[in-house]
Please model this.
Amino acid sequence: MYEQVTSQLIKLINLDKSETSHFISKLQIKQFQKKEIVLKEGAICKFSFFINKGCFRYFYNINGTENTGQFFFENSWYTDYDSYLSGKPSKQTIETLEKSEIILLAKSDLQQLFHDIPKFEKFGRIMAENAFLGLRNRNEMLTNQTAEERYLNLIKERPKVFERVPQHYIASYLGIKPPSLSRIRKRIVEAK
Model:
């Protein structure tokens, strides 16, 4: 039940059995159906979560249009860091794209882990660094690459997205409309 999350955690910080048990005692497993909301825009994010099974995306609703920010799959952590750190309402919505299972870690419980087991501060730092790098890479992608370059890099770096995510969400993530994505795909196929 907690094997995936503990094996991922142990790759980041070295825990003994009692520390691992203490960590597990703070966790809560939650199941979601496809297209369920994990965090709704306007709610305050008071948790981080580890994906045991499933696929998630976060998006921003801009004048009625959903702009996808990122996709997440098994063995990854996610939280809306802006809301999580500031205590302000979230500007994003997190939704499942498949039947999913997550392991929740409440912010208050993570704070307690920082106190009880100081090496968890390293875990917190690594998660924050990964979030920063993810945002920076996304910003550079949207700023410095053409739509076709973004598409080709996504195929190369994250092929799982194309196996598990609907095309209209991929187009949204790439910052283009679905017909533009279809034209790019056609152009690439014809060039081969």
Q: What stands out?
A: Strands lie at 27-32, 37-39, 47-53, 56-62, 65-72, 77-78, 93-96, 100-106. The chain is about 50% helix and 25% strand. The chain has a mean pLDDT of 94.
